[in-house]
């Protein structure tokens, strides 16, 4: 794990068989972490703050009392600065194949065994699950009372979480991830690029997701797309924005965000340069043309 621009105010963990199993963190944002889950999966529950998880295929925003289940793969975790709350608190629980085999005596439950089929879902958000919230409350209690924590208790709590996840209302996607927990989804360079044209993540973050340096990423990108990443994304985003201005009732600000622009000012400037009209005037001019 790599942390950028953040202060870890509190960090606690419990290990099982020499491997990190449960973690509790309180962090003062801004926060960014590159997580390479090469041989493990992870369950994250947000207690306070907003958590943004970026995978090779998608971006998910998680808020307080929501959870995220991730199978092995590359992820970037971010937490932006906000007025309220001013801190980020979470619990993370790790699933490692060697631990699962050991605690189940090599008799892995059927829903954890690989299923046939190509499931490329790498992460799923789990919302408003009371049982999971109560479970996390119990984990927090054990972090405050380490004297009562034993190896047997950690094993029981890990098994309990797996059973609870198997019964959530998000069960179909959870089942896909649990049954393919340690089979990483594979994505080509172009698949990762196409998945993030409108997500608004940076070139540096795309380089991280594709396991390359920024310079190597740019060279490969230009070889495939015959133009720079900045030029390609700008063109694609403006094309989508122009289309949304015609076919939707979204506000200019909503369209800017939908198309991956960081601010309405930047969007308006880029749009004016491309179409010689401000977004609002472009929308009106196109509607007038259709009426005539």
UniProtKB/TrEMBL annotation:
Keywords: DNA-binding, Transcription, Transcription regulation. Residues 187-285 form the HTH araC/xylS-type domain. InterPro entries: ExsA-like_N, Homeodomain-like_sf, HTH_AraC, HTH_AraC-typ_CS, Tscrpt_reg_AraC-type_HTH. One of its GO terms (molecular function) is DNA-binding transcription factor activity. Signal peptide: none annotated. Pfam families: ExsA_N (PF22200), HTH_18 (PF12833). PANTHER family: ARAC-FAMILY TRANSCRIPTIONAL REGULATOR, HTH-TYPE TRANSCRIPTIONAL REGULATOR EXSA. This is Exoenzyme S synthesis regulatory protein ExsA. It comes from mine drainage metagenome.
């Amino acid at each position: 794990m790599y942390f950028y621009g953040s202060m870890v105010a509190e960090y606690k963990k419990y290990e099982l068989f020499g491997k990190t199993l449960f973690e509790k963190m309180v962090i003062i944002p801004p926060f960014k972490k590159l997580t390479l889950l090469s041989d493990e999966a992870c369950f994250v529950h947000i207690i306070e703050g907003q958590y943004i998880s970026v995978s090779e295929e998608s971006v998910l925003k998680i808020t307080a009392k929501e959870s995220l289940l991730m199978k092995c793969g590359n992820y970037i975790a971010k937490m932006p600065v906000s007025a309220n709350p001013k801190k980020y608190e979470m619990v993370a629980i790790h699933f490692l194949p060697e631990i699962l085999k050991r605690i189940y005596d090599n008799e892995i439950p059927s829903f954890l065994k690989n299923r046939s089929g190509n499931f490329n879902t790498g992460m799923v958000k789990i919302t408003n699950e009371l049982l999971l919230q109560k479970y996390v409350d119990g984990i927090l209690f054990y972090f405050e009372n380490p004297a009562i924590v034993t190896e047997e208790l950690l094993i029981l709590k890990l098994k309990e979480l797996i059973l609870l996840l198997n019964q959530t209302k998000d069960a179909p996607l959870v089942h896909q991830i649990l049954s393919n927990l340690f089979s990483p989804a594979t994505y080509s360079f172009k698949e990762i690029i196409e998945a993030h044209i409108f997500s608004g993540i940076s070139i540096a973050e795309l380089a991280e997701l594709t396991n390359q340096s920024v310079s190597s990423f740019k060279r490969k990108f230009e070889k495939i797309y015959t133009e720079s990443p900045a030029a390609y994304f700008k063109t694609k985003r403006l094309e989508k924005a122009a289309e949304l201005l015609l076919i939707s009732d979204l506000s200019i600000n909503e369209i800017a965000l939908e198309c991956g622009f960081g601010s309405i000012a930047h969007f308006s400037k880029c749009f004016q340069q491309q179409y010689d009209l401000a977004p609002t005037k472009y929308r009106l001019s196109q509607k007038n043309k259709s009426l005539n």
